[in-house]
Amino acid sequence: MDAVPALEEPLKKVLGPATAKVMAEHLGLNTVGDLLHHYPRRYEERGQLTHLADLPMDEHVTVVAQVADARLHTFASAKAPRGKGQRLEVTITDGSGRLQLVFFGAGVHKPHKELLPGTRAMFAGKVSVFNRRLQLAHPAYELLRGDTEETVETWAGALIPIYPATAKLESWKIGKALQTVLPSAQEAVEPLPESLRAGRGLVTLPEALLKIHRPHTKADVEDARARLKWDEAFVLQVALARRRHADAHLPAVARRPRPDGLLAAFDDRLPFTLTEGQRKVSAEIFADLATEHPMHRLLQGEVGSGKTLVALRAMLAVVDAGGQAAMLAPTEVLAQQHHRSVTEMMGELAEGGMLGGAETATKVVLLTGSMGAAARRHALLDLATGEAGVVIGTHALIEDKVQFHDLGLVVVDEQHRFGVEQRDALRGKGKQPPHLLVMTATPIPRTVAMTVFGDLETSVLDQLPAGRSPIASHVVPAADKPHFLSRAWERVREEVANGHQAYVVCPRIGDEEDDPKKAGRKKSTEDEAEKRPPLAVLDVADQLAKGPLKGLRVEVLHGRMQPDDKDAVMRRFAAGEADVLVATTVIEVGVNVPNATAMVIMDADRFGVSQLHQLRGRVGRGSAPGLCLLVTEMPEASAARQRLNAVAATLDGFELSRIDLEQRREGDVLGQAQSGTRSSLRMLAVIEDEEIIAEAREEAAAVVAADPDLTNLPALRTALDALLDEEREQYLEKG
Length: 735
What we know:
Elements: H1 5-8, H2 11-15, H3 17-27, H4 32-36, E1 42-45, E2 60-75, E3 85-93, E4 98-104, H5 109-114, E5 120-130, E6 133-137, E7 140-143, H6 149-154, E8 159-162, H7 171-181, H8 194-199, H9 205-213, H10 218-248, H11 262-269, H12 276-289, E9 296-301, H13 307-320, E10 324-328, H14 332-346, E11 363-367, H15 373-385, E12 388-393, E13 407-413, H16 420-427, E14 435-440, H17 446-452, E15 457-461, E16 471-477, H18 482-497, E17 501-505, H19 516-519, H20 525-530, H21 537-546, E18 554-557, H22 563-574, E19 580-583, E20 596-601, H23 609-616, E21 626-632, H24 639-649, H25 653-663, H26 672-675, H27 690-706, H28 714-723, H29 726-732
Parallel strand pairs: 4-6, 9-14, 9-15, 10-12, 10-13, 11-12, 13-14, 16-21, 17-19, 17-20, 18-19, 20-21
Antiparallel strand pairs: 1-8, 2-3, 2-5, 3-4, 5-6, 5-7
Helix pairs in contact: 9-10, 10-27, 10-28, 11-13, 12-13, 17-27
């Protein structure tokens, strides 16, 4: 797309250094091409007003609305002790809902003159709640007059594009900048093969760019979107198809279990039978392991569906076939826990080379960053000689010093916490590329699996093992109904009185150093109410132990504790020596205490939907029913509250992951926070555009099969390079 110099022109040449700097720093836009691909989030019609009831909290928004009334108040403050402080309150309306704007101090004069009742304008600012009402403090605004020549020119189209903007650069300023660069759109190069474009009746790329930024009708917007979505879906799927094509040509050692080996001995020991789902998924994995190119499989299953057991059986099959298997966990707590549960499940089969070990046994070693030098030396030696068939560890496994005798399988737990470079480093430790199994407990809708994990085959474990109990979930609105919170603590006491245990989860630890820069500034009470920091483990544990949970054994667990201390706390909790564990999300993955039946999540609105679902999966793991209470201070109408209601309403992880995606920005799907680059998805909505993604995947596979190096499609190659520099293509392997 950006092959042509006109689109590679730096913005500072075209727009001037000041605007270009803000665009680069806040929006990641550096060239004319970048700006042309910064699409409007939505459009407002000149005569129509934005629906104010749906505004998201804490986000920067742009709205078109009408001034209902404006009042100037004077008040006394530290800076203006004689009652000379001024505050302008302007109420804007969409005809049904209202939103308050506030301006303070010297900033009141201009809006007081301009924002007269009846005036229409675009307002931009951050939505917050003050005194239980939505407000924008000090918003920027642009009057919609249409009487002066300049405004008529700028707002010529009937549709006003509203761009993703920042506090430093409002939507209308981005619109003016686009006016300047739009003529360059004529030079955009076509990435789609002509037959594909014409065959689907898609407009050309230059036409699509003109129509997306300056539509005259809604039909223009539809034409442009249809075309730009295809570009994104197709270029992305070509990248993944090339990746799959390359992987399919890598060599690997086929690993087949022995009929009388370790796996058979392990299956004989199991005190229960595998579920139908576990058997089916195991068969898919064993079929992959028996081939001579590396398995790339994604295993997704609800919390508690028995993924670890399936992965362990695959690891034992590889050990049977003379190889070694490594399991990579995101945290030390989790690595220790996996090690514990694997050695317990295997019993004497994990005591290879030791007295009392079974004759088919192997060694299972743990390798983490905080191990003592002697233990670490031992573990490294066992890996290098092949004595240890199974190793479980954190990214300490990837360090240069770690050598394997014959690495045959890598199992990655909780994919989204590992960068692709880390996984490739571990894969590089095999003599030939090892097989790869990626496990995630975050259910992923099919389209996302096709987009983010596009080069992995997918297996799904969707039934829970027998004996798992239902979990009841409720939202506790602490601000509206404080007595609900008191009742929540009573429920925890009741569970403990019945011989059970409970978790209390908080977003923060609470021993963070206070930022001296922030400490110096006095905050207004308004700020205080608005920006209360998330509740912290150490504070909450202290308050509970002295207050509502007095007399119960309350312990604390968080990520900054020493690994041995964390382990000791978990062991005590698992052994029933503590009643309530107040923790951060370190318990999100893998902690298994069947006796824990209740969970209270404080400031639940600060967590994502999938994360809440993960956390909730930690209770109800035994025969007693589970209870999950989502505590929030968010007002009833807020989007955060609707999100929590959705989590409380269903236990279906796939349904929740759809909601999660619909509520997040499309870009987050590809994990841009992890990759550090801007998301390549600007137009494609992964949930709605399932058909386009599926069709693009087929088209891309056909194109790559016919011409793997894209020799005959230079424009597509250019588009690929723009989307993925080398590192990005690697990164794309998994979001």
